[in-house]
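In response to reviewer comment 3 from the previous cycle, which asked for concrete evidence that the modeling workflow produces usable outputs, we include below a single protein chain processed end to end. The sequence was submitted unchanged, and the resulting structure tokens are shown without manual editing.
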Amino acid sequence: MSSKMKVSIGSHDEPNNKKLQVEAQYVQKELQIDKTVPWTKKQTSKQDMPDMEFTGGEGRTLSLELLFDSVEQNESIQDKVEAVLALAKTREDPENKATAEDKKRPHQVAVVFGTLPRFIGVIQSVSTKYTMFNEQGLPTRATCTIKVQEADKVSFKTGQ
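The workflow returned the following structure tokens.
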């Protein structure tokens, strides 16, 4: 059974910045959270049933679709799409030497849906599909498919 519920995504770095908070309509038929557990085969293993060695933990990955629909209101949804994209862009110009190190990276985000705990991480990818336009050519319906990698702490990689 599919029901509509709200899902929101916003900056975990700047939680009070309303321009970096997006609420979408989410069709609750799919929500995917993946957990990868990395193992490697031990070099000394020569059997059909190899010895395995745990190589470290990995965060979970969340994949979901954000639905933006204002067909009935005949209004553009482009500002909502731009807000999602802003969360995936570098916060400040990385070429600016005066910019603080923690601002030379995209936002750490918080995803909230239903009664599940907030999912904190970084956006790995955003794919936008526009499906309806009004007479002026403005988009009135779009779906943003996002992939978020769980992350407790994030930073900007400085020189090699």
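Residues 13 and 26 are 24 Å apart (CA to CA). We consider this sufficient to address the reviewer's concern, and the full set will be provided in the supplementary archive.
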